[in-house]
Amino acid sequence: MQDTDFDKMLQASDPDRRLAALFAPAEVRARLFALYAFNQEIGRIAEATSEGMIGEMKLTWWHDAVADLYAETPRVRRHAVTEGLTGLTGTISLEDLQGLIDARFDDISARPYASLDVLLDYVDATAGRLMGLALRLCEAELAPETLRAAGRAWGLTGLLRAFPVRAKIGRAPVGGDDLSDAGATPAMLAQGLGEEKVKHAVVPVRRAAEQALADLKAAGPLPAAALPATGYAVLARGYLDALPDNPYLIAPERPLLPRQLRLTWLSLTGR
């Protein structure tokens, strides 16, 4: 698969990361596209697979395929994404890529988040880790607290936007303790029931997303070198504001032009 094919794939499945990556030089952009295509492959397995065992087999295949790339005699399995990852092995470690995969096994198991802290750990291990790896590809750095804020702002907002889908696979972005306090259950989530109770249980997650956005803003201007890897986090503000009150409703898509303009302004000002 050529860079243009990854571009088309991400334009449909991960448009905001793609938009930010366009600000990178061509060679770096190609590596970002390969990383994001990999993230899409492993991220959609839980949603696309009804049988947990099949999902585990697919993630295990990726786990082994990535390991093959780092073997003493590297082996590239016949898959467009694994071929794309060959250009990343000199910068990103085996442990980092397998860490992204490992974080997805709980999605397959449909294990609810026990608490908000557990949910935050998941976001740090997925959206946050991905941002950190992208920064490495861009040879850019952010303070750890700024990176954490950016990852949580984007990751939590994305999970809330996907609430209806996540609820059906048993991984709704809500702490189990908050769910119990609201008088709701995981079974209700899977069936789309108890709207008012679930709205109450989700409040701490929305607050955490708001806090992450506030922390990101307080960190000051974003370095230009970091924009292709993390700049899309600023778009979380618009998505969070557009979330419907009913968490079971699909969040509306935002028009492309305002997102493009927001990232262009970020590139000019760092804010």
Description:
The chain is an all-alpha fold. The chain has helices at 3-13, 15-21, 26-43, 45-48, 52-69, 80-85, 94-102, 105-109, 116-137, 144-161, 163-168, 176-181, 186-191, 195-218, 227-230, 236-241, 256-269. Helix 5 packs antiparallel against helix 7 (94-102) and helix 10 packs antiparallel against helix 14.
Write the topology of this structure.
Blueprint: H1 3-13, H2 15-21, H3 26-43, H4 45-48, H5 52-69, H6 80-85, H7 94-102, H8 105-109, H9 116-137, H10 144-161, H11 163-168, H12 176-181, H13 186-191, H14 195-218, H15 227-230, H16 236-241, H17 256-269
Helix pairs in contact: 1-2, 1-3, 3-9, 5-7, 9-10, 10-14
Question: Care to give the gist of this entry?
Answer:
Helices cover about 70% and strands about 0% of the residues. With about 270 residues, it is mainly alpha-helical.
Name some characteristics of this structure.
single chain, 271 residues, mainly alpha, 17 helices, globular
Class of secondary structure makeup: mainly alpha
Secondary-structure element string: HHHHHHHHHHHHHHHHH
Tally of alpha and pi helices: 17
**Strand composition percent:** under 5%
Largest sheet: none
Shape: globular
Low-confidence stretches: none
How much is the average pLDDT? 95
User: How many β strands by DSSP?
Assistant: 0
Helix content: 55-70%
How many angstroms separate the termini?
35 Å
Radius of gyration: 18 Å
